[in-house]
Design a protein that fits this description.
Elements: H1 8-28, H2 40-61, H3 66-70, H4 73-90, H5 98-122, H6 131-162, H7 167-190, H8 192-217, H9 224-252, H10 260-286, H11 312-315, H12 347-354, E1 359-367, H13 372-385, E2 398-406, H14 409-412, E3 418-424, E4 430-441, E5 444-453, E6 456-466, E7 472-475, E8 487-491, E9 497-498, E10 501-509, E11 528-536, E12 539-550
Antiparallel strand pairs: 1-2, 1-12, 2-3, 3-4, 4-5, 5-6, 6-7, 6-8, 7-10, 8-9, 10-11, 11-12
Length: 552
Amino acid sequence: MSPHPSLGLIERLLMLAVLVFTPLCIQLTATPDRNGHHPLPYRIAKILQPFAAVSAVIAFLLPAGTKAAFFTMPWLLLTAMLALHGVIRLLPRGLARADELAVDAGLIYISVGGVWLFLSRLGARPLGFSAVIVLLTAVHFHYSGFAAPIIVGMTGRHLAESDPTSWPTFRVLAVAVILGTPLLAVGITFSRTLETLAALLLAGSLFAFSFVVIFDVAASLDSTLARILLRCSGASCALAMFAACVYATGAAGGSRAMAIPEMARLHGMLNSLGFVFCGLVAWMIARPSARLADPGVPFSRLASWFRVGPDFFARIHAVSTAGHPSGLVDDLSEYRRADFDPNEVHPFVRAFYTDTAHHELIVSAEWRRGFRFAARIYKKMAAIVGQMNLPLADEQALSISSRILPIRDEVDGRQNVRAWVRTYSDSGSAVYVAAYANHSACGETYMNIAFPLPGGNLSSILRMEILDAGGVLLTTFPSPHEFGDQGVYFANRLVPIRLPFNETIRVWPVNTPGCVVPEPVTRKKATAIAKHEVWLFSTKFLTLDYHIFPIQ
């Protein structure tokens, strides 16, 4: 079967995406780690791209069928590698940054375009779609699904630095672009109403985005050529999306203002040569950098098969015979930076961190209402695993004993590692079993804590800050103007996953004004108090209050 003559332009638009736009997008989405290494899927995609592109062009020179579909297989593999690259970028970072999320979405969505390209050249008609719709779906996922989100992401990178006041508007538009593509695909498949609404959402968000580009972003670029190209991109996007809105509303009313060939000529040419080509070339010139720390946090390799327990490090032969650390850190000066002077830390607080083994803790818990039933289920599971076995809200304040153990670096994978094993004094069961280290990046030193779990470990990367009265704050929340390594991750041998949790740990000298935690029933005199708070998304669900006593 030969391609229908009226589809010649649509095929050429798709080949333009294959031959020109994809290699530009691959260059823009390079994400080397802090050692300059690229993920394996990205390296494969970069090597494969020219051969896959030529093979895809050959597929269009053949009649639709098995032979033509065979020549799309390299392109199918390429798009799968780009999708894996998107997943590897996304998982360690999470959903916090709309600009980077748009880039991830584009990399993932192109794999859907690869599948529809294969189906088109195979001559398949899934769900009874016509040949035109199958081909247009492939085009859609290469342009609106792939190139457009990457242009949006590059724009967001620049906007976050040049005009932060526009960031809330950009974030809404970026999310709409990200959601618009899959919603439109679902609507085409199942619901005409959803199809119309999704088309209007996608076209409307890109239409509004074009004005942000023209009036807020282009003027702030240093390169004259980049400014001209970006304004051309924005103007073309506005015209193309206006045409798409007219087409979508006409289709919903039962009277199409334009037939598919006319829509392809107008919308397709504006979208490809105007919006996408000019936009990608502009950002290739400007090259905005991600406002995030480079990938490559040095996570621990520790993991358990099932049970952890207080004897975990002895069971895996991880305890070193060299050195006898007694604290979580050897010296707080390791964390010194312009806004953190360790000399301002109160001696009682400093003593807790440098001589942890000679301190006892008494802890009480407060679980947020609505989480207490889940906490009881969690408590039973944590007791079985022997890890992060936290008290319940209705339990009395409990005494915790500490042991600090030297850990063999070759077992853990980090340097200067020590374990802090915390057990309930009355039962000897584990509360926390964790390995502590630190690492530095971009002039910042982070506390790097690994809690071994089945299949990996929960890693908490914390930034240290100074508090009033000589207290310290450890937090996984990002700084207001900086994006570092801090966060809570599930570290494993495949790819670390940024979890939707955050925590803060505040430690003050006892009797600090305004810093109160519930007083335990004891005659011992505390030297420091601490408050450990944990969030799921933006909801604080757990508070642990500690009194810290030196062992006489």
